[in-house]
Amino acid sequence: SKAKKSKKKIPIIIASAAAAVILIIVPIIVYSTSSVLAYQRHSFKTLGDRYYDGDGVEMDEEKAKEYYLKAVAYSPEKCGKIHIDTKSTDEENAAMLNRIGLILFREGAYENAEVFFSESAKIKEDATVMVNSSMTYLYLEDYENASDWYDKAVDAGYTGSDSYMENALNE
């Protein structure tokens, strides 16, 4: 009878040890994976900055866009969710999203550009980004949103003169 009790304890001890290992190791693996992804995103953002600015490489907006989109893990096929770089400051992320928007705007992809301008403005209220949003809405012929974003830009301190925009909004 005593031998039967000790045999029952062994599987319980093994199961308890296995559960303890799982409780310790799984969070480490999850943390390590998320940490690696954060550094990977930061590296992609840095490469995007280099190509956008021509810093140490030939300026190339297409390559900059490619790296920036990898940095935010953006894929229109995956519901267009944007993941920001947690290793960068809000200001750096806002600037990166604005740059993606500018590249897309110059490519004529106005709807996609607006997604990035809006995300940038959510992170950091920047008058220039708001003007970019306003201009994008002008190109989309959505004058109400263009006017709203322009007003937000002025409220945020925008003092530039955009006669094209002001004329279009006053028509």
Tell me the radius of gyration: 25 Å
Strand content: under 5%
Poorly predicted sequence stretches spanning 5 or more consecutive residues: 26-33, 75-79
- What's the assembly state of these chains? single chain
Distance from first to last alpha carbon = 96 Å
Largest sheet: none
Count, helices: 7
Mean pLDDT: 76
Per-chain topology:
Elements: H1 2-53, H2 61-71, H3 90-106, H4 110-123, H5 127-139, H6 143-155, H7 163-170
Please supply descriptive tags for the structure shown above.
171 residues, mainly alpha
What would you say this structure looks like, in words?
By secondary structure, the protein is mainly α. It is 75% helix and 0% strand. The chain contains 7 helices and no strands. α1 (2-53) runs antiparallel to α2 (61-71) and α5 (127-139) packs antiparallel against α6 (143-155). The longest helix has 52 residues, at 2-53.
Can I get a quick summary?
It is built from 7 helices and no strands.
